[in-house]
Design brief:
- The structure holds 2 protein chains of 2 kinds.
- By secondary structure, chain A is of the alpha/beta class.
- In chain A, strand 8 and strand 9 form a beta hairpin.
- By secondary structure, chain B is α/β, with parallel strands linked by helices.
- Chain B has 3 domains: 246 residues, 4-Layer Sandwich (Purple Acid Phosphatase, chain A, domain 2); 77 residues, no CATH class; 50 residues, no CATH class.
- Chain B is globular, with a radius of gyration of 23 Å.
- The chains are: A alpha/beta, B alpha/beta.
- Chains A and B meet through strand 13, helix 8 and strand 24 of A and strand 5 and helix 4 of B.
- Strand 24 of chain A pairs parallel with strand 5 of chain B.
Chain lengths: 507, 406
């Protein structure tokens, strides 16, 4: 340790060692240890820049066979370090100490990190990473708090967002403290034709809804028109004020049969609409809900139905409240339909949880997180300019009711600053674009102002966790999904089959 | 091909002396109708009896009806349901099958840990029938998860699948809380799916599955079912088209009153004036009161007198339900109207995880509790000695716990 200032300490690297950006180092200072991280690497030399340029010129231009005397003493690497945390007897505190001047710093050892314990409600993110090395130290956050206070997962395509989500979901299946709703626009998490959540040893805690050929155990996604309310369209369809009023009036007058009556343009006593209002609303609803009118009948072509699916939303919410992971395959829908489904579930779920809070029974219910891919579609500045929707409401006040979002995006800069600030845990994967990095850094829970280069250099599967529920921004490596899944599947004990009551002939 | 599809006969279900023979009577009426209709065969999709060992008097009448069918050459194919199934496999159904009164189609092999069901072929029509039993709390879901479907789906010919389970996708709104399973667990490509367990009358065609039908019970099994269904019935399926045949044992007359803001005397007056000019010959009268009385208590309504008037007008049986009736004068008692199974289910869930055991998570605990409750809910049979009853219970429990109980 040879100089610098708090948060920007300069250390000299011993010859033969190879420090990396993001590497973790430990300094011992009396009873305390200080965990530090390399955020910059620079060359150092006892020889002046002018002489170095001259010597290099001699080598390049004249092929001179030059060699430094005491080369390890004269030329070396300097690392710039920032304090992460002060450790005292297996407890970690926000760092307010500087290491002693000229003291030695070492690479971290497992013992130094024993303060990283497994909380009561663990949410596994990955293994601690020192530079590019993955350490045998699993990183768990306190899941019930992290999930209710929202997670933002940001990273460029191909940096490991899907693997991270698959891992998180896989590990949460075994936990009873949370229910997770996944709107899956790429139908990638259940694993219809590949290894996926269906293969989890506790797959009875996974529920999968799909509109197309449900595999054994999956449910057909059908939603009854009676379960849709006008507010579910907020943020889905941009209705004008008169159109919105028409929706609300139909709902007030006809109750759960409002869509049916609106589609047949039935009159509401004492109410007159502008000529085109109902016709436009009708046309937009027919298009969005994939319906057709033939004579006196409504023909349903998509997932919205007049007979089936009356309990779908109820069942999904019940499963979430039972701590299950519910995956909705939205791969065959337009974005608007996917958001409408999400809006339907999220609205009713939040209403339930508000009711539980009012009754004083909310503590008995698990925390619920809603996984939203391409989050700016519902949380983007542009969409929110036309008014709030259920997802922005959850982002602002969901934590009070144990309902959170897990928002995934490669463009965090499109999300308003206020909502980004409400996402109290950010899992940052590699981001090349400067404005996107800036948006994340400016809203992070820890000071990441020196981590811009670090974030830009994050490789596939490397991440940085910034969270209100972590003492420092934790570098992690995300294990491959196949590795963790196969390990769990392999350790599952073969259950004895029980077919009692059936007359079986054993072969 | 013409066949009848019955389910949920629940012979012996009603405990009220005046109704205890009703389900047996409904069964006799249904089988008589089947003979008259000259059906080729009869399907009973679970819960022929209300317990695995029904009372002897009910059994005698049911056997009499089954014997008539046998004598007429009408085969009967059954599956055990959640009420007449037993974990040990020992039920009255076995005895009756041994006597040749019907065929239990739930038969198969275990192949590499999977359940392979075999078809039973109806000799006269060539219809191929396979089936899966039903268990309490829908525990049969595990069987479906380990079911080989390829052999069932690839078989050619007219195929019938008998099942005793609720289906998520077909569950009506007022049955939100019953435990059901996804449609995708049923094998595909059958012509007819003969369902039972859910007491609804419903038939629907689903792509890839054919017709899925629930005929409902032969006679309603509770106050609310009497209110909703009024009567039972079954399907006659002739060359692919369905006809629901009602079984009318008694007429139903419903009196439903919203008691908000009324006192017991006013409620009494309203009921008596409604029944004043009516006769109730061969009728079950159902009185449901709900709301909040402005004064007095529900017991202040003179039901004794109301009942007496109704019986004086030849009512066959009178029932009342005041579970949703409260009063302003007393502290509100919250009553959740649920079926016994739903109430048990929520109590089990509330108490899960109180004792921590290694390698024993909530799901396992729930499954064990439900299986044990199922095994322990069996009743001592008429003529069964205490040591025999004890032995039978031990056998069933040891099967659930996978241990030897000596």
């Amino acid at each position: 340790m040879i100089g610098g200032e708090f948060g920007k300490i300069i250390a000299r690297q011993k010859a033969g060692e190879k420090l990396e950006l993001g590497e973790l180092l430990v300094s011992e200072s009396g009873e305390n240890k200080i965990l530090m991280q390399v955020f910059d690497l620079i060359y150092g030399s006892q020889i002046s820049q002018q002489n170095l340029e001259l010597i290099s010129g001699m080598k390049l231009e004249e092929n001179a066979d030059t060699e430094f005397f005491d080369r390890n003493l004269r030329n070396y690497m300097l690392a710039r370090l920032k304090n992460l945390v002060t450790i005292n007897k297996e407890k970690a505190f926000v760092s307010k100490l500087m290491p002693s001047f000229f003291s030695e710093i070492k690479k971290e050892k497992k013992d130094d990190l024993s303060f990283l314990t497994k909380p009561e409600n663990p949410l596994f993110i990955g293994n601690l990473r020192s530079g590019s090395k993955m350490l045998d130290v699993p990183i768990y956050l306190e899941g019930s708090r992290v999930l209710s206070h929202h997670i933002l997962i940001a990273g460029t395509t191909g940096r490991g967002k899907s693997v991270l989500i698959s891992n998180i979901l896989w590990n949460l299946i075994s936990q009873d403290y949370c229910g997770i709703l996944v709107l899956d626009p790429h139908d990638e998490y259940y694993g219809r034709d590949k290894l996926g959540l269906k293969d989890h040893p506790k797959n009875e805690k996974v529920s999968y809804y799909t509109p197309k050929e449900p595999p054994a155990g999956a449910k057909t996604l059908k939603i009854n028109l009676k379960t849709i309310k006008p507010q579910h369209f907020d943020g889905v369809v941009n209705f004008s004020d008169p159109q919105r009023q028409a929706l609300i009036l139909y709902y007030k007058f006809f109750g759960s049969n409002w869509i049916n009556n609106l589609l047949f343009e039935r009159k509401i006593e004492g109410v007159t609409f502008h000529d085109q209002t109902v016709a436009v609303v009708k046309r937009r609803l027919l298009h969005l809900l994939d319906l057709e009118i033939q004579g006196e009948n409504i023909i349903t072509k998509g997932i919205f139905d007049i007979n089936a699916g009356i309990n779908t939303i109820y069942d999904i919410i019940k499963e979430l409240e039972d701590g299950k992971v519910v995956i909705i395959d939205t791969s065959s829908f337009s974005g608007a339909v996917e958001i409408l489904i999400g809006s339907l579930i999220a609205t009713e779920l939040l209403n339930n949880y508000k009711f539980y809070k009012m009754k004083g029974t909310l503590s008995n219910s698990p925390v619920i997180s809603i996984v939203l891919e391409e989050a700016p579609r519902v949380l983007g500045k542009e969409i929110l300019e036309s008014g709030p929707n259920i997802f922005s409401t959850i982002a602002r006040e969901g934590r009070k009711f144990k309902v959170g979002l897990t928002a995934i995006t490669q463009l965090p800069s499109l999300i308003p600053r206020e909502i980004l600030a409400n996402m109290n845990t950010k899992i940052i994967l590699g981001i090349e674009m400067k404005p996107e990095r800036t948006a994340i850094i400016e809203s992070a829970s820890q000071d990441l102002s020196d981590d811009d280069r670090n974030i830009a250099s994050l490789d596939i599967g490397e991440a940085l966790i910034s969270s209100n529920f972590a003492k420092f921004a934790i570098p992690v490596r995300i294990p491959l999904f196949e590795e963790i899944a196969k390990k769990d599947i392999g350790s599952k004990k073969q259950e004895k089959r029980d077919f009692s009551g059936i007359k079986i002939s054993y072969n | 091909m013409k066949f009848a599809h019955l389910a949920d006969c629940h012979i012996g279900s009603w405990r009220e002396p005046k109704l205890k023979d009703t389900s047996t009577l409904a069964f006799s009426k249904a089988t008589d109708k089947c003979v008259k209709e000259n059906v080729d065969f009869i399907l009973i999709s679970g819960d022929l009896f209300n317990t695995s060992f029904p009372r002897l008097d009910n059994l005698k009448t049911a056997v009499n009806s089954l014997k008539k069918l046998k004598d007429k050459g009408i085969p009967v194919y059954i599956i055990p349901g959640s009420h007449d199934y037993s974990p040990s496999g020992k039920t009255m159904l076995d005895v009756l099958e041994e006597a040749g009164l019907f065929v239990n189609v739930v038969k198969g092999e275990e192949v590499c840990g999977k359940l392979k069901l075999n078809f039973t072929i109806d000799k006269k029509t060539g219809a191929k029938i396979a089936g899966m039993l039903g268990k309490r709390y829908s525990l049969e879901k595990k069987y479906y998860e380990n079911l080989m479907t390829e052999n069932l789906e690839k078989e050619k010919g007219y195929k019938i699948f008998m099942f005793h389970s609720g289906i998520d996708e077909l569950k009506p709104e007022d049955m939100q809380n019953i435990i059901t399973q996804p449609l995708s667990l049923l094998p595909k490509n059958f012509d007819y799916y003969a369902g039972g367990h859910v007491h609804i009358v419903k038939d629907t065609k689903i792509e890839g599955y054919g017709t899925i039908a629930y005929p409902g019970p032969l006679f309603p099994n509770s106050f609310s079912e009497l209110e909703k269904l009024e009567r039972g019935g079954f399907y006659i399926v002739e060359n692919g088209s369905l006809r629901w045949e009602p079984i009318q044992i008694y007429n139903i007359f419903k009196i439903t009153k919203n008691c908000n803001g009324k006192n017991p005397e006013q409620v009494y007056d309203e009921i008596t004036s409604e029944i004043k000019h009516k006769e109730f010959n061969n009728t079950i009268v159902l009185i449901r009161l709900h709301g909040t009385l402005s004064s007095g208590k529900p017991t202040g309504i003179d039901f004794k007198e109301i009942f007496s008037i109704l019986y004086g007008k030849s009512a066959y049986f009178v029932m009342k339900n005041t579970s949703a009736l409260t009063t302003k004068e007393f502290e509100e008692i919250k009553i959740d109207v649920k079926s016994v199974e739903e109430a048990e289910n929520s109590i089990i869930k509330e108490h899960l995880g109180q004792i921590k055991l290694k390698n024993f998570d909530n799901e396992k605990e729930e499954l064990l509790i439900k299986s044990l409750m199922e095994a322990l809910s069996t009743e001592k049979q008429e003529g069964e000695t205490n040591p025999d009853f004890e032995r039978r219970i031990k056998e069933e429990v040891s099967k659930v716990l996978d241990i030897d109980v000596k």
